[in-house]
């Protein structure tokens, strides 16, 4: 039996299946068949056939309310992809650590959460790590999260914050959406985000979004407030910005050529 192909040479049914997964993600992870039909424009029989296949494979699940949600099997794929993404970035993070003497991190935005995918620890100081690879946090309370949210359209950033809420990790965490959106505009103008005891008391983080990344991505330097003084931040921020730009350039060379 011949397999239908799309105009760009891809397999049409496969493209449609991934489109449905993306649309489920865009709705917050759950939708009915009729909602998927309305948003995708695909015929209901086609959607039903694709969803049934995705349910069988474990990439979609049907809830008791008969609505469909993203399946647990996607978690393993996403985590492995994120970790591989962080592997090639480690040499640049190591150079950043050598330059500034503090721990460097790389994080991505995955399903409304910040996921740390790579870290290189400083050897100059005896200190515990403030976060670890694989940790997931809400973006409003982290330097990397704020740097990534500042790159989004304000309406998209607001929608994400309304989905996740803005719980206070410490007394310094931003918890008001409107004030936080104004804060994101300041981050865009400044060129980097600063987390000062917003995720963990006594910890500071300088973060910069990686330009043109395929998914929102940010690099950061973190350390205790006693070392990351305002003067230190002004000296470290340009180094983090240079690393973000170099990461962007490396990503560009890894993109598939049409």
From TrEMBL:
Biological process annotations from GO: glycerol metabolic process; negative regulation of DNA-templated transcription
Gene3D superfamilies, A to Z: 3.30.450.40, Winged helix-like DNA-binding domain superfamily/Winged helix DNA-binding domain
Domain IclR-ED: residue ranges: 73-253
Ribosomal protein found in the keyword field: no
Entries under SMART domains matching the protein: HTH_ICLR
Database matches in SUPFAM superfamilies: GAF domain-like (SSF55781), Winged helix' DNA-binding domain (SSF46785)
Record InterPro entries: GAF-like_dom_sf, HTH_MetabolicPath_Reg, Tscrpt_reg_IclR_C, Tscrpt_reg_IclR_N, WH-like_DNA-bd_sf, WH_DNA-bd_sf
GO molecular function terms attached to this record: DNA binding; DNA-binding transcription factor activity
UniProt domain HTH iclR-type: residue ranges: 11-72
PANTHER family assigned to the protein according to its UniProt record, in alphabetical order: HELIX-TURN-HELIX TRANSCRIPTIONAL REGULATOR, ICLR FAMILY (PTHR30136), HTH-TYPE TRANSCRIPTIONAL REPRESSOR ALLR (PTHR30136:SF24)
Protein name: Glycerol operon regulatory protein
Organism listed in the record: Saccharomonospora glauca K62
